[in-house]
Design brief:
Helix content is 47%, strand content 20%. It has two domains: 1-128; 147-221, Beta Barrel (Thrombin, subunit H). A hairpin with a 2-residue loop joins β3 (173-178) and β4 (181-196). By secondary structure, the protein is an alpha+beta fold.
Length: 224
């Protein structure tokens, strides 16, 4: 809009000048013509710069749309992976490490997409919240206490990979142990819903100060 006004003003000056000063000498008239031509050239250059900037803006918007699409795909992949983890019982440390690395890689890609999208450096990736896993010892054939693992915790509900197949019922009490120390009980859970043969939901009855259920923590049916 401003460029158009400047060009319009220049054209008006070109039109008005001859009638306003009809007695200009030839060299003076040439000087004015040269000045107006220089102004018009500058206007043209500014117009070209604006066009170039508009082209760059279009490219930026296209890149932003591509990054948004990539970010959404990463979010969906993370959700799919979380859903898979919620129903997967970690059998040994090697498998768990592989899965955890896949989650970390996916989150790193997501952080990179966010960084490109916002133009700001992504915050350093937080350390995984899941505690280090100590591979549970192979259960002896005569083992009586059913054992499972925490698959998710949303702040109020704990999901475990034990269900009706392990004799879990609504009201069943479960002792909670950290994955890094399966010999020290840190809390007690109570089953509120048996989802199916291999999954249940529970709430916290008691828990040690500063402790909270995390993915791969161990739960055992309270026998007493």
């Amino acid at each position: 809009m401003m460029i158009r006004r400047i060009i319009l003003g220049t054209i008006l000056l070109l039109c008005v000048t001859p009638s306003a000063w009809p007695s200009f000498k030839a060299d003076e008239q040439k000087y004015l013509d040269d000045q107006f031509k220089a102004i018009l050239d500058q206007m043209q250059a500014m117009g070209n710069q604006v066009a170039a900037l508009n082209g760059q803006l279009v490219e930026i918007k296209q890149t932003q749309a591509q990054l948004q699409s990539a970010f959404l795909r990463q979010q969906h992949q993370l959700q799919d992976l979380d859903d898979m983890l919620s129903s997967l019982r970690v059998g040994n440390e090697e498998n768990f490490s592989t899965i955890r690395k896949a989650v970390a890689d996916l989150r790193a890609e997501t952080d990179s997409a966010v960084s490109k999208l916002t133009g700001q450096a992504a915050a350093p990736a937080a350390a995984p919240t899941v505690a280090p896993v100590t591979t549970p010892a192979a259960p002896a054939p005569a083992r009586q206490v059913a054992q499972g693992y925490v698959t998710s915790y949303d702040g109020s509900t704990v999901t475990i990979d034990m269900g009706s197949a392990q004799g879990i019922q609504q009201g069943s009490k479960l002792a909670l142990y950290k994955a890094s120390d399966t010999n020290t009980r840190v809390g007690v859970l109570e089953v509120t819903q048996v989802i199916d043969a291999g999954n249940s939901r529970a709430t916290i009855v008691t828990i040690n100060p500063g402790a909270k259920p995390e993915f791969s923590d161990v739960v055992r049916v309270v026998t007493e």
